[in-house]
Amino acid sequence: QVPLVESGGGSVQTGGSLRLSCVASEDAAGKSCWGWFRKAEGKEREGIAKIDNFGAIRYAAAVRGRFTISQDNARNTLYLQMNNLKPEDSGMYYCGVVDVGPAYCVPYYDDMDFWGKGTLVTVSS
Hints:
single chain; 7-stranded mixed β-sheet; about 0% helix; 4-stranded antiparallel β-sheet; globular; about 50% strand; mainly beta
């Protein structure tokens, strides 16, 4: 059973929108911290958003105000609504889950228990 499966990536023009989904298996479900990461070509992986089991949300500065992370606990699904996309947003987007306290559920925390294989986002100018 695959722990996490992302979907929703695609190709859009600058200013467009995409909605990513991350569906968790039973093994990955129930973690206290869920997050989205991305990796652009030639760059390091970047944590962009986290949500904890209390609903607290943290964003990286690069996406704050444009991206919205949310969680459907009933379906064990994580979402990332991405608006006003820019070419620099292009890359592979990954979800990850981990059991950590609220203080650690921040965008840059990347020691996740499970990772998805990613979904590709391409933003053209």
